[in-house]
Amino acid sequence: MEPDFWHERWQDGRIGFHQAQPLPLLCKHWPALSLAAGSRVFVPLCGKSVDMAWLAGQGHRVLGVELSGLAVQQFFDERGLSPSKRDTRLGTHYSAGPYELICGDAFALDEATLADCAAVYDRAALIALPPPLRERYAATTWQRLPAGCEGLLITLEYPQAQKAGPPFSVEEAEVRGLLEPGWAVSVRERRDILADEPRFAEAGVTSLHTTVYTLSRR
Q1: End-to-end CA distance of the chain
Q2: CA-to-CA distance for 9 and 7, rounded, in angstroms?
Q3: Measured by CB atoms within 10 angstroms of the end CB, which terminus of the chain is less buried, N or C?
Q4: Which helix H or strand E contains 172, and what residues bound it?
Q5: Tens of pLDDT along the chain (218 residues)?
Q6: Contact 167, 193 (CB under 8 A)
């Protein structure tokens, strides 16, 4: 997807992917990472996700990256926060409280920017990208996270021919192909969610699962 695609979605308010409540699978599986209080968590393609507020509520600092400045500003506005702003070669950094959100390109973030991230949380980034961009994302953003970084990744699996993405179907074999051997990858849960996703059923999708992975950077 080109950047203009996402800018238009946010400008037009076509953000059906945005959820009003923290993802239950995040709340269920995050404790498995056993992060220390104050740990910094990286959230790629973060939008204005309330999951970031949930992570902050667990005592974490949050580093997000998002193409849409509108999404970033809405995140802070909805929490009554007035962020400071600074421009770098990576984009505009908005900071307030436990949050630093970079309005910029996730693929361009370097090792120095990600060096103190103890964890990464991806519920909507990998599945938002078509195959060539998934490969680029894995080879840049994920590979620049530091050794020892822990991860929680949530994907969707469905017959791709039955519905155009995004969100795209990303099977376990692809996740492993993209991230191993740089990351140790473990499946924690695979759940049938077709009954909970009427948009997919209405589109003719006959099978839909969500899969939760924990990961550890080697």
Answers
A1: 30
A2: 5
A3: C
A4: helix 172-179
A5: 456 665 566 565 555 555 689 999 999 999 999 999 999 999 999 999 999 999 999 999 999 999 999 999 999 999 999 999 999 999 999 999 999 999 999 999 999 999 999 999 999 999 999 999 999 999 999 999 999 999 999 999 999 999 999 999 999 999 999 999 999 999 999 999 999 999 999 999 999 999 999 999 99
A6: no
